[in-house]
Amino acid sequence: MTEPSTPPKEVLRPGLLAGTTGLVTGAGSGIGRAVSLRLAALGMAVHGTGRREEALAGTATLAEGLAGSFAYTPCNVRETDAVTALVEQVAANGLDLLVNNAGGQFFAPAAEISQKGWNTVVDLNLNAIFAVTRAAYPHLKARRGAVVSMSLSGVDRGGMGFAHSIAARAGVLGMTRSLALEWARDGIRLNCIGPGTVVTEGLAGEAAREILDRLVAATPMGEPTPVEEVAELVAYLASPAGRLMTGQLIQIDGAAHLGPGLHLIAS
Ligand SMILES: CCCCCCC/C=C/C(=O)SCCNC(=O)CCNC(=O)[C@H](O)C(C)(C)COP(=O)(O)OP(=O)(O)OC[C@H]1O[C@@H](n2cnc3c(N)ncnc32)[C@H](O)[C@@H]1OP(=O)(O)O
Ligand SMILES: NC(=O)C1=CN([C@@H]2O[C@H](COP(=O)(O)OP(=O)(O)OC[C@H]3O[C@@H](n4cnc5c(N)ncnc54)[C@H](OP(=O)(O)O)[C@@H]3O)[C@@H](O)[C@H]2O)C=CC1
């Protein structure tokens, strides 16, 4: 079954995030789009980024009429100077939330990953996250804000065919826990979310569909993670209810991290 068993529920109260500002990377599609729309629906002024302007414009169209707002600036997060300048621009009037969502990888056994392929995935999924988070630090400190970084279910146990991505995201988890300590007295909270299989355009195409079906079948609860449920969790972490949540990896995956996990792609 690749569809959720029940419609996703919105449980947070309207207006919860009114008066707050957030930056979401990878906001033009999939999880990043759903997160941006939910945050804006709860009243946040959201700024999104990603490389494709038309994808970001699509999110902006969907955000029309929501309680908050969605503005965007195209940017490649792997270009450190450009993305650092973007953080400065977006945060000029305050920043309450940073969502490090842009990411991705290709599936390949480690012996087939070139050095450039490794570096590309580590740049996208680790180095860019450090650059953006460091640039956001003074602004988050001023507002006692939060950082949520999108990770992977099972990141703490490894995954065949994902050595580059797991290494990068395990690095992000280590960074998250270290900064949760360093920045605790600044009131900044940092957490990682580990979604299970999420049906997004990143998993589109016939070959991906076959992998998707096998991943879902191997998920103990037998269903994928809806983007809306990831978005609700991000909003919770951004809200006062998440006040003491920091340094966590929260896996929203139907127990996928306890099942066969990513390994089965390699079999
Ligand atoms: C039970 C648990 C369930 C959890 C499920 C988790 C599943 C996760 C799903 C997702 O994350 S989907 C959402 C994200 N979307 C994607 O992952 C797709 C996006 N991927 C990419 O854009 C690329 O893979 C990229 C490498 C991250 C970036 O591509 P870019 O265009 O910037 O680089 P390239 O110039 O194309 O390549 C750079 C380098 O990498 C080598 N390479 C690329 N693909 C492969 C491959 N399939 N196999 C081996 N090597 C590859 C490429 O050859 C280049 O290196 P050189 O050849 O020049 O040495
Ligand atoms: N789908 C899944 O099953 C799972 C996904 N994840 C993770 O969740 C996150 C979102 O994935 P998902 O929504 O599924 O996938 P998508 O491919 O739909 O989203 C990835 C987003 O990242 C953006 N992005 C990629 N590279 C860059 C870059 N260099 N600079 C700026 N933006 C970039 C893309 O925008 P653009 O192309 O316009 O740059 C895109 O909007 C990723 O980190 C993914 O690995 C984690 C677990 C499971």
From TrEMBL:
It catalyses: (2E)-decenoyl-CoA + NADPH + H(+) = decanoyl-CoA + NADP(+); (2E)-octenoyl-CoA + NADPH + H(+) = octanoyl-CoA + NADP(+); (2E)-hexenoyl-CoA + NADPH + H(+) = hexanoyl-CoA + NADP(+); (2E)-dodecenoyl-CoA + NADPH + H(+) = dodecanoyl-CoA + NADP(+). SUPFAM superfamilies: NAD(P)-binding Rossmann-fold domains (SSF51735). Pathway: Lipid metabolism. Its main location: other. InterPro entries: NAD(P)-bd_dom_sf (IPR036291), Peroxisomal_t2-enoyl-CoA_red (IPR052388), SDR_fam (IPR002347). Pfam families: adh_short_C2. Keywords: Fatty acid biosynthesis, Fatty acid metabolism, Lipid biosynthesis, Lipid metabolism, NADP, Oxidoreductase, Peroxisome, Phosphoprotein. The keyword Membrane does not apply. Its EC number is 1.3.1.38. The keyword tRNA-binding does not apply. It is found in: Peroxisome. It is an enzyme of class 1 (oxidoreductase). It comes from the Bacteria. Participates in chain elongation of fatty acids. Catalyzes the reduction of trans-2-enoyl-CoAs of varying chain lengths from 6:1 to 16:1, having maximum activity with 10:1 CoA. Has no 2,4-dienoyl-CoA reductase activity. Interacts with PEX5, probably required to target it into peroxisomes. This is Peroxisomal trans-2-enoyl-CoA reductase.
